[in-house]
Design goal:
44% of the residues lie in helices and 17% in strands. The protein is an alpha/beta fold. It folds into two domains: 212 residues, Vaccinia Virus protein VP39 (Rossmann fold); 85 residues, no CATH class. Helix 4 runs parallel beside helix 7 and helix 5 runs antiparallel to helix 7. The longest helix is centred in the first third of the chain and has 22 residues. It binds S-adenosylmethionine (SAM). The site of S-adenosylmethionine has 18 residues, from helix 1.
Amino acid sequence: MNELEIKLENERLKESWDCFPAEHLADYLAVNEQDQRINAQSILTRALLADTLWPKKFSGLINEELRFGIVMTWLYEKLKAGADRFKLLDELGGGRPKKGSEIPEAIRQTAAWLRGADCPIPNYVTDALMFLTPDQPGTLLFEPALNTFLNLWTSQLRGLSAEKISVLEIACGSGNEYRALDEFGLAAHINYSGFDIASKNIANATKNFPGVKFFEASILNSGLPDNSTDYIFLHDVLGHLSLEAMEIALKEIMRIVRKEAWLHCFNAADIPEHVNHPVELYHRNRLSISRLTESLRAAGAADVEAIPISAMLQNKFHFTQDYTASAVTFIVRKQP
Ligand SMILES: C[S@@+](CC[C@H](N)C(=O)[O-])C[C@H]1O[C@@H](n2cnc3c(N)ncnc32)[C@H](O)[C@@H]1O
């Protein structure tokens, strides 16, 4: 792509988000399955950061938080589909399985484990179903139950120290991932900065977190110096670029990062070629894991690990979630 083509693609991408009202951009990616407290890839970003700062110290907590994410998402989806919260509560609270019950074994087992007197984790299943705050409509999960792991992490991290690392979030939106890093107690241990192409997103993020470095830029020509950040992470942007622009973005990521990049994609698969899918001014492409890996290696990656989220959850918990069916996270280590 030449400079003019990059400029035009940037304009189309910017307009694709800046065309929405700022209030919509502020939280449309922080609710339901996308809620950073239960979304598998958001949990993974925090897990990767925690494991970088304190290697292997929190492996048990991370595993339990991933389980929490799929269980709470399952409960949320059941309630949304019209399930009766008190029937669910009865069955998951130790009542007899009902005839024709559709509760998966993994959910049942988690609920039974949480009921145990020696379980170290608060019983988030019962809490989520039993209560509602006065301002919550009937189908939702109880807010404090959604904060179960937020509370566990803040108490675990209190008083800990670590060597600070610089972390750049690309396509940070309105700062929803940052909000979670802040609330979980991780932001205090890193030098965070985030950029996004949409000015309304940056205005939202800056308004919510005035002291944090959020700025407007494009991953196609960020202008940031080589090796200027230790770690990069991004959620759900690569598939929105044209295939030509994505190749430029991958080179740019490998140029800016010093150690590792964690690239969360919403639609990737074991397919031989990327599938180009333009939609209005942007794209919803289906990415080929092998092609993306090849491009990253050509751009300077020493090692690329692709983690299909569904397979990871299935492997760990014998259960997965529909919304993760095409989600793949790439952990990319740069050549030293
Ligand atoms: C699906 S949203 C994801 C936002 C955020 N990562 C999250 O998960 O909450 C895609 C984001 O990518 C941003 N974006 C699109 N093209 C970009 C580019 N070339 N450089 C930087 N950000 C871009 C959009 O403005 C939007 O905020």
